[in-house]
Every structure is written in C-alpha cells, then in structure tokens.
Amino acid sequence: MKKIVILISGRxxxxxxxxxxxxxxxWPARIVAVIASRADAKGLLFARAQGIATVAxxxxxxxxxxxxxxALVAAxxxxxxxxIVLAGFMRVLTAPFIERYENxxxxxxxxxxxxxxxxxxxxxxxxAGIKVHGATVHFVNAQLDGxxxxxxxxxxxxxxDDEATLSARVLAxxxxxxxxxxxxxxxxxxxxxxxxxALTPPEPQCLITG
Length: 210
Ligand code: GAR
Prior knowledge:
By secondary structure, this protein is of the alpha/beta class. It has helices spanning 13-24, 43-49, 65-77, 95-100, 121-128, 163-186, and strands at residues 2-8, 29-36, 53-56, 83-86, 105-109, 132-139, 149-156, 190-193, 196-199, 206-208. It contains six helices and ten strands; from the N terminus they run E-H-E-H-E-H-E-H-E-H-E-E-H-E-E-E. An eight-stranded mixed sheet has the order 3-2-1-4-5-6-7-10, sandwiched between helices. The protein is globular and about 45 Å long. Residues 8, 10-14, 87-88, 108-110, 135, 171, 174 line the site of glycinamide ribonucleotide. The site of glycinamide ribonucleotide has 14 residues, from helix 1, strand 5 and helix 6. One of its GO terms (biological process) is 'de novo' IMP biosynthetic process. The active site is at residue 109. GO terms for molecular function: phosphoribosylglycinamide formyltransferase activity. It is an enzyme of class 2 (transferase).
C-alpha cells in the first residue's frame, strides 16, 4: 500500500477528486494525510469528514520560508509518504525541500505549460486570445511550474467565456486528469527521462474535454 499525502491551501476540490477515486477504484494506496498551509482551508473539512488525518502548517506563523518548510517537512515525514500531491498548494517550495522528495512530488497547474506559468492563468489565457486552454500535471522540480510534464487536459476557449466560465471548464478537466495521473504513479507506470515522462503501457497523456 503506497502512502499519499496531499497538500492544499484552499477549496481542495482536486484533493477531493483524488480521495474519491482512490476509494472507489480501490487503488493500492491510502491517503494518509491532508496538510494545509492555512488552518481555514475549506478542503480540511472534507478530509476530516473522511477520517483522514489533517494538519495545518500555517505559513503566516513562520517568518521565513525555511522555518515554514522545516515545519512542513516534520509534518510530512511523520506520515512517511511515498508520494506528495500538491493540489492547489499556493506556496513556492525551495530547492532543498524539493530535492528531499525528488521525483515524488506532483503538481497540477491550471494552464497548458509551458504557457502561463504562475498566477491568474485563466485571465491571461483570455487576454492572449488563445482558443485552447487546459491544465498540466507535472513532476515538481526547482523551476517554478517547470518540471517534467506527465499529462495535460485540453478544453476549448469559447467566444463568450469569462474567467469564471473558463476556470470552471478547466477545473472540471482537472478532476478527471489528476486522479488518473496519481494512479499512474501509484501503479509505477511513470518513467522520467531527463525532461520527458513515459507511461508504460502507453495510453494518451492528453485528455480532451469540454
Ligand atoms: C486548481 O485550479 C489548481 O490547478 C490551481 O489551484 C486550483 C486549486 O483548486 N493550482 C495552482 O494554481 C497552483 N499554482 P482546488 O483547491 O479546488 O483543488
């Protein structure tokens, strides 16, 4: 049984999708904890209701990133995770933290990377006038939103979209994409080759929805 810890900062809808998929699809894995960078993260309520251990490591209580990460490491290591899943975790992690869990941290980002790294991806996509948008699941490395891409979901951008309609369409695709990728990891199907990630046996690493 592999052990998964999910890190959140807010709503936690991706975490919820992963928890549900793990249970319904009977993955050989267990979500052992949900850790939040804010004590008021809404997702903690769902996790607690599922009987999952929850911890708040409040970024605002730590003056520097190093002391915040030391507390995060202590919380994480107490659960001895095989995999750390960032699901709307809105803190930038330092290189030493990432190296400690090398190739064991996944993230979902709400754009088709390498386009639109960082924040406000949906509005920036609208402003750029692009006709397809989506989400990316990648291994986390020291480059912000720059780690090896595992899979992407693609949705259309419609003429009358605003930030709310577009982000809702992307989020719905995230809820399909992220559990699928976490399961691939759990099943040892992912191989990292420099910047490229292979899936064995192969299947499309691109999900088209919307
Ligand atoms: C998701 O759209 C996720 O892709 C994004 O935050 C949202 C979290 O929603 N992540 C980032 O922007 C990371 N830089 P959720 O809390 O409902 O899963």
